[in-house]
């Protein structure tokens, strides 16, 4: 529909949608968890945190939990490098996130339901 309305090819629309992370072809979860993958966060344990987050949520980047509660997204800098590793849940940034802290934050989201 978008391609026809803008007189563009479907490939051009798909190219734009796949380039920009805020465009989606499917609805996001109620809460979006951005996990920083920049160098500073990686040097402070973001790769381990990423593995933990994937295991805890049962999803990978760009996916949403089966209950539609959480979408996990990569981000390449939250501007919180001195307090790595960092994540952002919706509009709130969390610093020095360990596996335990991640679990607490996710449990808080689940408890809101």
The rounded Rg comes to: 16 Å
Distinct helical segment count: 5
Helix content: 25-40%
Report the CATH C-level class.
Answer: Alpha Beta
The end-to-end span amounts to 35 Å
In order across it, which strands form the biggest sheet? Answer: 2-3-1-4-5
Q: On the 0-100 scale, what is the average pLDDT? A: 94
Number of domains: 1
Number of strands: 5
What best-fitting shape do the alpha-carbon axes yield?
A: globular
CATH architecture: 3-Layer(aba) Sandwich
- How would you name the CATH homologous superfamily? Glutaredoxin
Taking pLDDT < 50 over at least 5 consecutive residues as the criterion, the unreliable ranges are none
Q: Give the helix/strand class.
A: alpha+beta
What sequence of helices (H) and strands (E) makes up the elements?
Answer: HHEHHEEEEH
Q: Tell me what portion of residues adopts beta-strand conformation.
A: 15-25%
Q: Would you give the CATH topology?
A: Glutaredoxin
Largest beta-sheet characterization:
5 strands, mixed
């Amino acid at each position: 529909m978008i391609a026809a309305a803008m007189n563009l090819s479907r490939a051009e629309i798909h190219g734009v949608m796949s380039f920009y992370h805020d465009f989606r072809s499917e609805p996001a979860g109620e809460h979006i968890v951005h996990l920083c993958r920049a160098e500073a966060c990686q040097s402070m344990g973001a790769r381990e945190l990423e593995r933990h987050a994937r295991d805890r949520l049962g999803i990978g980047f760009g996916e949403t939990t089966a209950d539609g509660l959480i979408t996990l997204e990569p981000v390449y800098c939250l501007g919180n490098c001195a307090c790595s590793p960092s994540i952002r849940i919706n509009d709130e940034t969390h610093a020095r996130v360990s596996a335990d802290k991640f679990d607490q934050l996710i449990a808080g989201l689940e408890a809101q339901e």
